[in-house]
Write a structure and sequence with these properties.
heterodimer; A: 126 residues; alpha+beta; 5-stranded antiparallel β-sheet; 5 strands; 23% helix; B: 137 residues; mainly beta; 2 helices
Chain lengths: 126, 137
Amino acid sequence: MTGPRSWRFVTAVLDEERLRAFSALVRDPNPVHIDPAFARGLGLPGAIAQGGLVVSALSAMLNADGIVQLDVRLLAPVPAGTALVCQGTAGEQTPDGQVHVECEVSDGADRVFARAVALVGSRVHA
Amino acid sequence: MTAGPVVGEVLGTFDTTIPADFTARLTTILTDDAAAAESSTVLPGAFVFFSFLPDMRWMERTGVAFERSLATRRQLQVHAQIRPGDRLAGRSVITEVTQDRHGRPRCSVTIGTEYHREGALVLEESVTYLNLEGEQP
């Protein structure tokens, strides 16, 4: 007997160098991602990962199945030095064969950074 | 007194080509796994409107200081597969503004962006930013 289909994707450790690289790639001008002192001035523990990077990690997990919709709630800042653990579990299937996926992004232990609902299985990706 | 952000206000327009090596560079940031990088197709999540807008003056019109804000929600609706090298045109618009109970300063702003390729809508994106300087909802 098998359970519902599941997905899992673990990123590399998102250190400050990778955060700088992502900011440069998407032209994100916010210093909170690349300047630890600036981030600490806002009460954060240091530089934090870009929301787009978290969403990209979810895309890396799901995109081979053809993402139709992705709704991501970013619940907590991701400190630099974190490896994101993305997990997804298949939910309801639509009449045309697309599948809802409940997703969570965490540090693999007790810190949840984001929750998302995706719809995958797009024909446009065939 | 300066006018606040207005729902429906266009922050900017764009017409640009996704760099050919975008996916490869993004994948290298995400993973050290060479096999994963080889087969990666991670484009949609990396789409954020400021990647496409030609300058940063757009954020001044939202009423939220970008460097003192955090993204709290991102929604994507994918209509067609997008690849590096595609030329995309579109615009970013303020779609929602929330204020504190006193009407100042703004708690959050949501920005919607539509991406078109050869006239056809390929992606809709919505991003909500929480103002760290405002009273929290």
